[in-house]
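Bumping my old thread because nobody answered last time. Still need a sequence for this structure:
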C-alpha cells in the first residue's frame, strides 16, 4: 500500500506519521521499491534506452 501511495505522490512524512514510524529512515525503505519500479519504467520507455536496444541497420 505504501509503495502505491508513494507512486501516486503521497508525502513521505505523511506516510511516516500514518505508519507511526519514529524515524523517517524506517519509512524510506519503501522508497527503494518505488525507485526500482521507476528505473524499470525509465529503461523500457526512455528514447535513449530505445536507441541502444535497436540492432544495427534499424531492424529490431
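Sorry it took so long. Here it is:
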Amino acid at each position: 500500500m505504501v509503495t502505491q501511495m508513494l507512486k501516486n505522490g503521497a508525502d513521505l512524512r505523511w506516510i511516516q506519521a500514518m505508519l507511526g514510524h519514529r524515524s523517517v529512515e524506517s519509512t524510506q525503505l519503501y522508497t527503494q521499491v518505488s525507485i526500482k519500479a521507476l528505473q524499470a519504467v525509465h529503461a523500457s520507455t526512455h528514447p535513449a534506452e530505445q536507441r541502444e536496444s535497436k540492432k544495427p541497420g534499424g531492424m529490431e
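The chain has a mean pLDDT of 79. Let me know if any region looks off to you.
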